[in-house]
Amino acid sequence: ALRREGPGRSASRWSRGTRRHGTQYSGECGTALRAQGLQVGDVERTRLVPAPPKTGGGFGAKGRSYVERFDVQGCETIPGSASGQVISPIVVTKIVESLAIGHFQTLSGDTSDVPRSKEMKDLDLTFMLSRITFSFCDLPARGDAVEAETCFKPQKVSFKRDFAVRNKTSGKLAAAATSTYVLVNVKTRKLFIAPKEMIDLYKDTSTKDTSAQLGVPNLPKKSKLGSFTSEEAKLSSSFVVEQSDIDLNGHVGASVYIHWILDSAVEEGVRLDAISTLDIEYKEECFLGENIECYTQTTTGEDGGREINHLVQTQEGKILLRAKSLWH
């Protein structure tokens, strides 16, 4: 049985994407914050932390997947976690994002942060993330060896891409993810159906059975997301979109939304090392200067586990995404 916690519209207002609470912060984030003139001990988290450094990588078996290794020694950790050394799930999501970029950079020969093939450039196309579902299993700690692998399956309407992040030190799966990317015209911002010729370009580097290729028999599955309105939920946090939130597609980067979602979950009293699932469906783009509101509906099970349904929208009511997170 689940107990819903009552909606309300009280919230702490956040300014400039950071939150001041005196929580100790460690790792590369500290360097980024000091560069902005902020004291590390005064900021809980920032959206500006990059993916951890890569230590190597290349194509996997028969070129059907792509593998990279990451150094997580200097990454953000979760305060109060085991020995204070467990890395944040945000780091894992950035590894996944970085891996997808690295794979397509290698395939396309375009080394920009938003790589596009020659065919995509000729047609003014880019990839945009439509849906991504994470399952978190065994978050690595600083000093662990982390390896991530991805493979994809191009389709007419969308490209499916799946991921496995492994803690090579413990021998356990750290996380898995499944995602859907769509092709969008960068000028009209409209969806584009990939021609067969474009799909055929990847017949030797894609795979039909991504689960078998990654060795993950139970990839995460999409869940049924909430359909509530902001009037039926609690306003947990709010932001103003900064220049640093904007990617080369000219809109807020997908990983920035994950910061917003997890920050609003922390407002509900959960610990980041208790996350088990995060499922996100992106609805609309948002841009520089827009005011963002994050709403939540939280239910608590008899075992103490929590389910949080998320709604992120602009102050004017444009729905940007819906998501669900599960916590043990």
UniProtKB/TrEMBL annotation:
The keyword tRNA processing does not apply. The keyword Hydrolase applies. Signal peptide: none annotated. One of its GO terms (molecular function) is acyl carrier activity. Residues 1-26 are annotated as: Disordered. Keywords: Chloroplast, Fatty acid biosynthesis, Fatty acid metabolism, Hydrolase, Lipid biosynthesis, Lipid metabolism, Plastid, Transit peptide. Its EC number is 3.1.2.-. Pfam families: Acyl-ACP_TE, Acyl-ACP_TE_C. It comes from the Eukaryota. It is found in: Plastid, Chloroplast. Residues 94-202 form the Acyl-ACP thioesterase N-terminal hotdog domain. Residues 231-327 form the Acyl-ACP thioesterase-like C-terminal domain. GO terms for cellular component: chloroplast. Belongs to the acyl-ACP thioesterase family. Plays an essential role in chain termination during de novo fatty acid synthesis. This is Acyl-[acyl-carrier-protein] hydrolase. It comes from Chloropicon primus.
